[in-house]
Recover the amino acids of this structure.
């Protein structure tokens, strides 16, 4: 294109000239030159090509800017199994390409054998060689920690999502404040119990190998102890987010403690707990609080089996991951303009 322009015209090239030659607005040119989102990759490439041809950018600068516009390939590693919220999250990640195209990003989900740190660490290292960044729901284990640190040494950024990992060089954690979520569940159960002078409540977690579940337990126990000292919390059960295991755990609890007043499930497999509650009916309703709004838990709220849910939207978590990777690529602070993920309390009367 510059072959048809006199040298003086090339020297005087301005943003308006780039916009006219590329067939876009000056605002689009400005976004491309400053590396901001909101421009399709094909359009950005055309603007950069024109900027190089008109002498506005050197060939090296154009190549650098072009690299910044290159599509990032991100892999999300989630636990396999029958946790319906995580399955729904994986479906959202795989089907939201259009939402992330302006960044530009391609996101893909891989499901990993649940509660197997060796498998998670191996898959993490494998995906790190084939992706521009990896997101994982971390197991608290030295093998996983070492894999994260190995990728950090290789320049591959890693984020933790939903459950964090201690003493690892991950770039950021994306998810709710799990300790606050546990405290919220404790407050709800305590208030829902009303004027009863005392009572027993139980906790069912996926696994304390998830730091997020451990933090929920800590927050829950601290709130109950400080605000509702007459309530007795039975020892924690771990069901590995499996519906059948949670069903068996709950059956045993209800048979052993017929005076059980409430259950807090801080992981998945909520439908198994609900099935056991509905099979062993008590004269007094068993209060039930869980996590993760899905079609199944929505139905349990509607029929009254669940009293409340604590949930966060997949859109907020995945959106924050994409923004963080964009910040890392553009050498900004990873959390620049990234708002923390907030959780919501969902009741039957405020179902979205």
């Amino acid at each position: 294109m510059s072959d048809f322009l006199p040298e003086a015209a090339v020297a005087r090239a301005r943003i308006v000239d780039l916009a006219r030659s590329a067939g876009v607005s000056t605002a689009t040119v400005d976004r491309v030159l400053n590396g901001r989102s909101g421009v399709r990759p094909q359009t950005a490439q055309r603007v950069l090509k024109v900027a190089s041809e008109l002498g506005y950018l050197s060939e090296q600068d154009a190549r650098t800017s072009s690299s910044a516009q290159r599509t990032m390939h991100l892999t999300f590693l989630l636990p396999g199994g029958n946790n319906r919220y995580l399955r729904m999250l994986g479906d959202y990640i795989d089907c939201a390409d259009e939402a992330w195209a302006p960044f530009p990003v391609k996101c893909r989900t891989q499901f990993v054998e649940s509660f197997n740190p060796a498998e998670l660490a191996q898959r993490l290292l494998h995906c790190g060689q084939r992706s521009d960044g990896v997101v994982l729901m971390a197991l608290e284990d030295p093998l996983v920690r070492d894999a994260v640190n190995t990728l950090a040494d290789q320049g591959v950024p890693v984020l933790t999502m939903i459950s964090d990992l201690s003493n690892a060089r991950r770039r950021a954690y994306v998810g709710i404040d799990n300790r606050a979520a546990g405290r919220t569940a404790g407050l709800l159960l305590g208030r829902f119990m009303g004027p009863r002078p005392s009572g027993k409540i139980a906790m069912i977690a996926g696994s304390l190998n998830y730091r997020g579940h451990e933090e929920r337990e800590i927050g829950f126990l601290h709130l109950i102890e400080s605000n509702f000292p007459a309530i007795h919390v039975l020892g924690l059960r771990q069901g590995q987010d499996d519906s059948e295991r949670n069903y068996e755990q709950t059956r045993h609890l209800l048979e052993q403690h017929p005076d059980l007043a409430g259950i807090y499930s801080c992981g998945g497999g909520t439908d198994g707990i609900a099935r056991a509650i509905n099979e062993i009916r008590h004269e007094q309703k068993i209060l039930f609080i869980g996590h993760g709004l899905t079609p199944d838990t929505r139905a349990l709220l509607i029929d009254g089996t669940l009293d409340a849910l604590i949930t966060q939207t997949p859109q907020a978590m995945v959106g924050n991951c994409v923004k963080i990777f964009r910040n890392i690529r553009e050498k900004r602070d990873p959390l620049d303009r990234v708002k923390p993920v907030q959780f919501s309390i969902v009741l039957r009367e405020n179902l979205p």
Q: What stands out?
A: Residues 1-11 have pLDDT under 50 and may be disordered. The CA atoms of residues 8 and 54 lie 11 Å apart.
